[in-house]
Amino acid sequence: MSRKVLLHVGTPKTGTSYLQDVLFRNREVLAEAGIAYPATRHDGHFLAALDLMQLPWGGLQAEAIGAWDALAEQVRAHDGTAIVSHEILATASRAQIGQALESLGHGDATEVHLVLSVRDLVRQIPAEWQENLKHRARLSYGAFLDQITDPERATRIGAWFWGVQEIPDILDRWGQDLPPSQVHLVTVPPPGGAPELLWKRFSQAFGLDGIDLDLEGERHNPSLGAPETALLRRINRKANAELAPADYRPLVRELLAHQTLSRRTRSPRLALPPELHPWVQELSASWISEIEARGYDVVGDLGDLVGAPPVTDYTDPDRPRERHVAAAAVDAITALLLDNARMRHEQERLHAELADVRGALERAHATPSYRLRHGIVVRLERSRAGRTVLSVYRRARGRSSRSA
Amino acid sequence: MSTSVELGRARAWAWVAHLRAGGTTPWAAWQSADGPEASPPREPIAGSARGGRFLPGAQQLELLRRLNLAGRPSTALADRVLAASAPGRGRPDLELVGVDVDRRFGPPAVDPAELPDDELLRVATGLLAAGLVERRESAVPSPDRQRFRVTRRFRPRYELAGDPWLAAAYTSQLVADGRPPGGGGRSVHVLGTGVAAMLAHTWAAGAFGEGAPSWPDFLAKVRARRRLPRRVALPEVVDRFRARPHTGRVGVVLDPAALPRLVGVRRLDAVVDPPAHATELARQVGSALSLLVLPAEQTQLLDTVLRPRLAAATGGLPTVPPEHRDWVDDAAFALRQRLLRAGYPVLGDPDVLLTTPPDRPVGSVLDLAIELLLEEEAT
Amino acid sequence: MTQRRVYVHVGAPKTGTTYLQDRLALNAASLKRHGYRYPTGTNPDMFLAALDLLDRPWGGMRPQAEGEWEALVRRTRRARGTVVLSHEILAGAKPGEARRALDDLSFAEVHVVYSARDVARQVAAEWQEQLKHQRKVSFRTFLKQIRESDQRGGSKRATRWFWRVQGLPGVLERWGNGLAPSRVHVVTVPRPGGPPEELWQRFCTALGIDPAWAPREGARSNPSIGAAEATLLRRVNVRLKEAGLPSDSYRALVRQLVVHETLALRPRMTPVTLPPDAYDWAEEVAQGWIDWVKGAGVDVVGDLDELRPVRPPDGTEWHDPDRPRPREVTSAAVDAIVALTMEAARRPDPDDTLTSRAARWARLLRR
User: Fold this and answer.
1) C245 contacts in A (CB within 8 Å)?
2) Contact B50 A55 (CB under 8 A)
């Protein structure tokens, strides 16, 4: 029976991917310190969250079936501290939250601690639009802002945004059954500070201080500038009808957005429109005073939620400088050309290698002696095509891949 | 907590009790704070994890009221509704207007009677999907082909392709008649009908199968691709089969009356078009099912469990909205031209491709969902 | 019995030659019945044979061409009836190479056919051709180099090639050397807007073919692009030079997929045209060509006035091809991105195909 569960439920764009990456890679070190991060794949907790909340997600739902119960079972079976972390949990309904807490052992001698990492709306609003675009959305920044500023929140975009961003409401839902001392807020430091600071706060909130963790890796999802985001939106508009989600992820999101466009760091940044600042200021102030009144444990500084003042040289991503967009597009074309060329050559190389392997196999067939045959297998092991052939062969013969 | 908030909550809990007992009074007309249970019930609502410590959402409550209006749901069903979470994306569980007047955060509270059908449907389809999964054990296994096999002296080998709805429906009639498709040298009959109907049939085949976007999104996607869906691009279907080994004669059949002779039976029953609202319900239940079972089982449950239960629903195919009519007409005309000049047999008049299905009234998806939920209990 | 004839169509590039060759190949069987041969051999066109004759490196393709010209001559010699040979890079033959070709074919009565178009359109077309070979020169510079160079042997590589294939007097002096003027045929390309069959009919007239013998339409390709598309291509070329894209990939991905199958199909492109101040020069070039043709007395099919540039109507605004509207460049770029993304998505995962083949071959290992 687990003594303590640290349940990290959001919010998005607060360094959660980095945290999850560190936890995943250091599972064994953590286990030695008595901390369980039960996952067999890096998106394990994401799948569990999809399952708990019954969310379809571009074809991932089949993999998510049963993921939450499996995760909860591992948490319950662990004697010590267990960590569960995914930012989309922030939108869970009260019924789902009740179900989640109970399945993790709440009310049954397990101390559940809630962790919510938070960042100012000045950064969260543009980041959330960008995240939408990286998931094939086509709406303009203007349309996005209209939807999130509509108090009805009746659209899918508006409902989702506030579901994962409205801190007092998230804490209302998730903290309904927990004493305030078991609710921890981690604030993201203002831009320009030391990059290690956020990790220090996480480390403190999760009780990881003093554990020798490997902290390599990307610290945050790279963000795109205004012209790059505008380009991404135009690509979505043109390609969406034909490009399957399974192809969109590696090509548009990974290759173009993350690996190519985000490297263009000299473009004008995506920002909150200055005219929305007063509204955001008022909202943030009401959140801060509410959180203070509730008496949660704050790691960091609630003042971080105020956010930076308006930018002086605001670039509207709906009306970008076309020459900037064109320049970003040339980078994108180049990246795609090189990737296509690499795949062409890879294919050709494999064809050649396959021809080789086939020759070796034919010789193997004609070779009665075990010893010679073993030599061929060893050679096949060295080439990628050969390894594929062997694995198919072994499957065909019903052997495990270990016994040659 | 202010007194007014306490009063509001008491009134809401009393309404919950009223609905659980089969009541139908709308929230706006509900005044009483002293029902049988004016506070969270001591007995937790069955199915909800930690009992009724928080009020169910407006969507769940209003769906239960609609169920009460339509029939007599058991307490078990009522509790399943109240404990349900709506699958997929949409609005979160909403609070009742006038309960928590001090509330400053979260989505605005609503009058449940004003919620759009879609919000109630999300809850209902989630429950229907869960119901299908519970019943999967009792699902009828596919009929044993051996039993139907009758030795016939003359049995043309065949395969039906083209319009997926027609092909599946005729094939299953023939299978039930002891005439499974296939065999070397078989003739392939590529079935077609009006292009508007073929689009609706393709959409329905997806909705009852591996999943489909909404009807408007489906049309928008077909238009963006600038070609008809694979299975109803009839000349391409013919080409694919002609390129395949072990097929005999490949032709297009546009006249259903010509089909029985081709497959060697005296008659075949006409295929009933899937009504638009039943298809839409199947689509949404399928989407909720995809969160619970693997794709193969999803298709099987929709086809063998849900479809028979929707057989009684009547109504027309979805119609092509005005903004899509031009390209659908163009596509129909282009297809007709190609079939007029085809180098393979085409049975029936290619003008049939230009026809549109008759405009018939379309039923309410939510009403159908409610009917199924009530019926589910009776069986 | 009259001596057999061989028609050598030597260009110029960008005068609808691909269409002509395609139509000849498509109708080869019917033409054969009327005594005309278009011997393509195993290669779909005569490019390698022409390259072999010209002995140029051509992006590393020269070795593949070894012996192709001799093979073509052999096939021509063996063929019965009248033979048509055609490739547009033949126009670029040096004097010795043209002489060798004429000698090799001297077993027959050789006719040379040259299709020509006005220099204003040819400059724009040749510039695009350069860009499709991974060059990055601006239109302004390209035009300047051409204007400043001598028609009979410019100094810079690009302009030298331009004049060698497009300079009408030079081409016909090299290829017409020793031939009677009546065996040299100049076909002028009709101005845009005329009947689409006109060029084909003129070509038939020059070759003595009845158009009815070749009823099957060839594929009409119009691989020209606009100013914004050309600018995009230039910028991509610069980046690819830095990144080092192999030339076979460049041909398949950039020239074929991006330019021919994507950018060339874009609607409402801004055409690449000469700046207003260049028309006097173009007119002068045209006059020189016309004078040469008249003086040489060669056969003309069409109208020599069609070689004169068409000035835009007064008051037409000129769009500098080097400064297209950025919005158009972005729009072209998005089309290219989508085409390339779809191409990447279409490419089968190498591991998948590998697995299915591996399964086949693994059976070999079983006993």
Assistant:
1) 337-338, 341
2) no
